[in-house]
Fold this sequence. Notes:
The chain is an alpha+beta fold. It has four helices and five strands. The model has no long low-confidence stretch (mean pLDDT 88).
Amino acid sequence: MKTEAETEYADLIGRPYPVPGTRRRMSPIERAAQFSPFAALTGFGASLDETARLTAARPVLTEEEKRRLDEALSVLRAQPGRRAQFEYFVPDEHKEGGRLVRITAALRAADPSRRRLILADEASTEIPADDITDIRPEPSDPE
Length: 143
């Protein structure tokens, strides 16, 4: 006894497979290749990389270190144009912690109302005063 599908499509059984006249037939490897870029877990690798990325904790300064920073800042204010190495903490945008950044430049201005130092570099870098961890003035030139 034939099923309903066998009787409905009985006229197709003996026919040859249709071959398009405008394109060549794909090999099994070419057919498989069109499915290989599929990634079911898109973004999972990036998420793992972000989780594995390490950040540093925000440093806590002692009173002695804060006093030394104030002295270094006073030296830079008294000698405009004198370069120094500034180290400051940059909080991470995506997770707790951050990283320490060092930049060498002269102090352009101190903005006490916004509690920021503005450096005389190409980017006019602004550093929040609370994020500064170290200031080391470069040796002054003997005159």
